[in-house]
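re: that chain from earlier
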Amino acid sequence: MTDTHFQGKYEVELKYRLHSKSEFLNTLRHIPHEVMHQDNIETDWYFDRPDGSLHAENKSLCIRTVEPSNIQLWIVKGPEPDRCEATNIADFSAALSMLDTMGFDVVLKAQKTRSIYFVEQFHITVDSLEGIGDFAEFAIMTDDASKLAIYRTQLQALAKQFGLTDAALQTKSYKQMFVESRAS
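^ sequence. v structure.
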């Protein structure tokens, strides 16, 4: 298991709502895989400019902590749907302070429970969002934009091994789901 699973400026990701997390995990037990971590709590701080211009530009800026794995990440997504870059940060408090100094506001703080598994070159995250549901994300990161369509097809085939179909496919980001759940 290496960090190469998370290197690249593009991420092909398919997210599915799980009807049964236990059935999904039972299927995973029968497929060769490696475990990165299980049941970590991820806390995401989403930032935007006061005028909401990052959101308007279809960009997302997030600082994430992962416990108990003690991982801290700076994540930027967009403006293209598959564009995603992440890097480790050593000092979470300093990163928050720097964003505040630059005039960014925290627009959402959200938590999820996440387990990460590796199946061949792909990573699968199993996420539980309180009050929203359970999800599985099938993903791969790459610097090669020419492979995005091929990877999407391969990820769809992998998801089918778990009995997941397009009917369960989710197009909303977790950020969108959290915002909508808090508005209702």
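The mean pLDDT is 93.
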